[in-house]
Amino acid sequence: MIKLYYRPGACSLAPHIALEFIGQPYEAELAQRDSTAILELNPAGAVPILDTGEGWILTQAAAILQYLDKRFPEAKLGSTGDLKHDSELTRWASFLTGDLHPAFYPIYFPNRYTVSTKEEDLENVKQAALKIIRRKLAVIEQHLDKKDYMVGANLTYVDIYLFPMLRWAKFQLADDGGLKNYTNIERLFAKLKHHPVFTKTLELESK
């Protein structure tokens, strides 16, 4: 059986949602930070971690989402077999992994981006990160113009992957109106937030 190791609110929320969409039996276990068991599964200590139930472990949210998409094609999480469509899935999953997600790191771990311990300098690191986040969101906002979802006409694992990052963005940009400055993003976020599979998964992670 598939087993997902997660932490509430982290990007591991995305594969958790995907597993709920798939509807096959799986286990979900709360990962204790830096525990020996987690470090044995993933030396980086990060989630998500997926025990595939096939004798091997997979890490990295985008890789896990792509794996689930291919393993359970009947769930229609993204791939259609069309080269352009599937390349767009990879493109935007890569953008989220390499551009948007890392933009949040200086906010949560500002001490990693300066040798200074002064509160003012740490705050400057956070403010610089917020500028980057706004730029990355602007790219997505423009892309979503006249689109219902990130890739194609239907919800895919890219939308699922984007969801936790939009939750972070809404919180971090609260003093600047949250997502209100990004009307296309806000429209997609509202749609995802009220989807029953998303709400169910959030409830599961809140227990």
TrEMBL record:
InterPro entries the UniProt entry points to: Glutathione-S-Trfase_C-like, Glutathione-S-Trfase_C_sf, Glutathione_S-Trfase, Glutathione_S-Trfase_N, GST_C, Thioredoxin-like_sf
GST N-terminal domain residues: 1-76
Enzyme class, first EC level, given as a word: transferase
A molecular function GO annotation: glutathione transferase activity
CDD domains: GST_N_Beta
E.C. number(s) listed in UniProt: 2.5.1.18
Residue intervals of the GST C-terminal domain: 82-207
Keyword entries, A-Z: Transferase
Protein's name in the database: Glutathione S-transferase GST-4.5
Source organism: Entomobacter blattae
